[in-house]
């Protein structure tokens, strides 16, 4: 496994061609995401607060709950660092996680018709996906959602019939998850079977004159913990030190992690230059159930399970 990781790192460390072309972040939108993951228990929805950060040509969709969790973790690490200021080799202990949140970030580059999926398995990994055009049908129906004048559109995408409400007054051709391509921000969306929904929780505009926050620190453990810096960043850009991978390679990495978490963590830390596992010890994780929940209903339905033509 270690050989596989280092080979992947060595052959794919070069960033994507457009990784150094950041887009100015203009708005942050929050959604309440709900999803019936287990069709044998339809009353038990998975719920998570999500965020979409959008600019003129790019956007990124990620877990707001994880952002907050990562900010709290960063504060814990910074406190530990201050307490061990005079220690030659400080030891950091990860705070316990109350719950596991979605670690995937979906970047959408409209001009290039690309999705870039970012996942962090200690190191950052990027996979590329072409944007599948949705044949949206815009109707005459309108709604006011939290003061926004919205129009209705319907379309088929990845095995589901979707209804989306979009606001033309917000000229961003993007939306939650991979629902994009309308002449305005998608404020709300849900599928025909009431299994997946994205409900608008509000938005904030970002000062266009704000300058990007640059942290000169080279201390990886403190400088950036997961998505902890997102709310202070004013640009949408891919991490320059990310590793390009295929979906199959990501799957193999996760399988290896599940089989031997400690060895996987050690190897990943070596890849990003964190050194010994003794320096960062995982805290007690209370967010992972002893028995993994049933997940038989993905948002993107396999073709064999598509109920529609």
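-> sequence recovered:
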């Amino acid at each position: 496994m270690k050989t596989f990781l280092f080979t992947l790192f060595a052959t794919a460390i070069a960033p994507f061609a457009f990784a150094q072309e950041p887009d100015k972040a203009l708005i942050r939108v929050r959604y309440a995401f709900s999803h019936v993951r287990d069709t044998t228990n339809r009353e038990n929805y998975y719920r998570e607060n999500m965020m979409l950060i959008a600019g003129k040509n790019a956007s990124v969709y990620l877990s707001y709950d994880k952002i907050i969790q990562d900010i709290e973790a960063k504060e814990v690490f910074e406190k530990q660092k201050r307490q061990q200021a005079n220690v030659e080799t400080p030891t950091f202990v990860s705070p316990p996680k109350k719950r596991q949140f979605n670690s995937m970030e979906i970047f959408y580059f409209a001009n290039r018709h690309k999705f870039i999926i970012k996942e962090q398995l200690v190191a950052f990994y990027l996979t590329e996906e072409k944007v599948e055009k949705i044949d949206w049908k815009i109707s005459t129906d309108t709604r006011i959602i939290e003061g926004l004048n919205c129009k209705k559109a319907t379309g088929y995408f990845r095995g589901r019939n979707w209804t989306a409400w979009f606001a033309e007054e917000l000229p961003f051709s993007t939306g939650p998850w991979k629902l994009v391509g309308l002449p305005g921000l998608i404020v709300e969306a849900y599928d025909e079977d009431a299994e997946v929904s994205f409900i608008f929780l509000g938005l904030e505009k970002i000062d266009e004159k704000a300058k990007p926050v640059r942290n000169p620190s080279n201390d990886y453990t403190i400088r950036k913990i997961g998505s902890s810096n997102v709310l202070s960043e004013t640009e949408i850009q891919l991490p320059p030190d990310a590793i390009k991978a295929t979906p199959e390679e990501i799957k193999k990495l996760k399988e290896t992690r599940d089989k031997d978490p400690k060895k996987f963590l050690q190897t990943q830390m070596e890849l990003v230059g964190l050194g010994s596992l003794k320096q960062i010890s995982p805290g007690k994780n209370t967010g992972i159930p002893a028995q993994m929940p049933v997940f038989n209903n993905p948002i993107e339905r396999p073709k064999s399970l598509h109920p529609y033509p």
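The longest helix spans residues 64-83.
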